[in-house]
């Protein structure tokens, strides 16, 4: 063992310095949820890097344990300092628990449906109903009580039926639809909430954005009780297909010595990231303030376009519980390569208890559906 220690003095020192650097970066990433991007936007990048930094520090921890060096304590201590962040990233719960018999059990779905794949045209620019129908079959099979849709589309000509058709076969037939933009006054794009219970009040929270993002809320009458549900879609980064290709191949671009193109494209992406970080911060603050004044128990579904290590998540989870904590795994919800994180959420006030959170594996959109059963213990569903 002594000879092994003598063989690695220089390598060990280099690794220790690198380890210290990554431990410091992991510590900095813990600050990202608490610093608004409107104040210091670069800190938001540290939140994005949190999963990678965590895995790197776990790797160093294992490395020093293998070589029986006490240096493993550096990464271990830093990981333990941020243990609460680990719970936002991973869960290990049983997702097949028996549901309580007391009170009301609500089966809730959140799903960014990417306009039901409206623009995936068939030959001759004909409408393609394949993924839309697969989503319909999935919804009919699962039979949810409350459904939150983002990137919902309504075709006024009824050639691509969504809004009216869903109400014909869903038990959640009561709908609240709000749109933020339209195409030729035919297709209307926005948010839709469907409920198995009557909607007795509707409202919306407008954002100062040109990207068409929005939050809507609906009050549901359930027997003698009323609950308020929020459906939201925060600002996206807005990367084009070219931007995605650039990021995925940035190493090759750099190696091809296209320095000017690399720099210009990189600066453009960073500018878009900054704009999105700052916009989402103000949007989250507006919604969080509105929720804090809700007179009823709250359920929220939404596409945050941000990770659990972000300022947005911190703002939204201050007064709400993350239903993911009754789930298992990492819960990755975005299918695309960038960002391949959990960005879709179901949250609830502490009036509810969450059971059996699941991330679906249906690839009918660029997002996976997420679902949970929420129990309201004191509710009487019969008036």
Give a brief description:
The protein has 383 residues and is an alpha+beta fold. The chain has twelve helices and 14 strands.
What features would you describe in this structure?
The protein has 383 residues and is an alpha+beta fold. Helix content is 38%, strand content 25%. The protein is built from twelve helices and 14 strands. The strands form three sheets. A six-stranded mixed beta sheet has the order 4-5-3-2-14-13, with no helix packed on it. Helix 2 (9-29) runs antiparallel to helix 4 (43-66), helix 2 (9-29) runs parallel beside helix 5 (72-81) and helix 4 (43-66) packs across helix 5. The longest helix is centred in the last third of the chain and has 34 residues, at 259-292. The protein is globular. The N and C termini lie far apart (75 Å). 38% of the residues are buried.
Question: What keyword list fits this structure?
Answer:
6-stranded mixed β-sheet; disordered N terminus; 14 strands; 383 residues; 2 domains; 12 helices; alpha+beta
Helix/strand layout:
Blueprint: H1 2-7, H2 9-29, H3 37-40, H4 43-66, H5 72-81, H6 83-89, E1 91-92, E2 104-112, H7 130-142, E3 146-155, H8 163-169, E4 174-183, E5 187-195, E6 199-206, E7 214-222, E8 225-233, H9 241-248, H10 250-255, H11 259-292, E9 298-303, H12 311-317, E10 321-322, E11 328-329, E12 344-348, E13 353-359, E14 370-376
Parallel strand pairs: 2-3, 8-9
Antiparallel strand pairs: 1-11, 2-14, 3-5, 4-5, 6-7, 7-8, 9-12, 10-12, 13-14
């Amino acid at each position: 063992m002594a000879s092994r220690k003598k063989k690695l003095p220089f390598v060990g020192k280099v690794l220790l310095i690198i380890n210290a650097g990554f431990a410091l970066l992991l510590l900095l990433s813990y600050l990202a949820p608490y610093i608004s991007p409107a104040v210091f936007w670069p800190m938001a990048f540290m939140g994005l890097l949190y999963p990678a930094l965590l895995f790197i520090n776990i790797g160093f921890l294992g490395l020093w344990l293998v070589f029986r060096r006490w240096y493993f304590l550096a990464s271990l201590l830093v990981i333990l300092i941020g243990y609460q962040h680990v719970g936002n990233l991973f869960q290990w719960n049983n997702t097949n628990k028996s549901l309580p018999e007391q009170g009301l059990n609500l089966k809730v779905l959140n799903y960014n449906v990417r306009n039901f794949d409206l623009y995936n045209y068939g030959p001759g620019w004909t409408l393609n109903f394949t993924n839309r129908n697969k989503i319909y079959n999935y919804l009919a099979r699962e039979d949810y009580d409350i459904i939150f849709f983002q990137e919902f589309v309504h075709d006024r000509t009824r050639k691509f039926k969504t809004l009216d058709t869903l109400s014909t076969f869903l038990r959640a037939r009561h709908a609240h639809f709000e749109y933020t933009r339209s195409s030729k006054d035919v297709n209307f794009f926005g948010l839709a909430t469907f409920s198995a219970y009557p909607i007795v009040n509707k409202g919306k929270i407008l954002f100062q954005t040109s990207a068409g993002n929005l939050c809507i809320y609906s009050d549901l009458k359930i027997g003698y009780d009323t609950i308020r549900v929020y459906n939201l879609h925060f600002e996206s980064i807005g990367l084009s297909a070219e931007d995605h290709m650039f990021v995925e191949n940035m190493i090759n671009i750099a190696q091809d010595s296209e320095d000017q193109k690399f720099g210009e494209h990189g600066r453009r992406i960073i500018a878009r990231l900054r704009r999105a970080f700052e916009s989402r911060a103000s949007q989250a603050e507006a919604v969080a303030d509105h929720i804090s004044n809700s007179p009823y128990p709250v359920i929220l579904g939404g596409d945050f376009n941000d990770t659990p290590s972000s300022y947005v998540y911190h703002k939204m989870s201050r007064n709400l519980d993350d239903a993911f904590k009754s789930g298992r795994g990492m819960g990755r919800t975005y299918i695309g390569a960038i960002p391949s994180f959990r960005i879709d959420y179901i949250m609830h006030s502490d009036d509810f208890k969450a059971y059996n959170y699941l991330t679906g594996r249906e690839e009918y959109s660029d997002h996976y559906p997420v679902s949970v059963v929420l129990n309201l213990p004191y509710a009487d569903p019969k008036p």
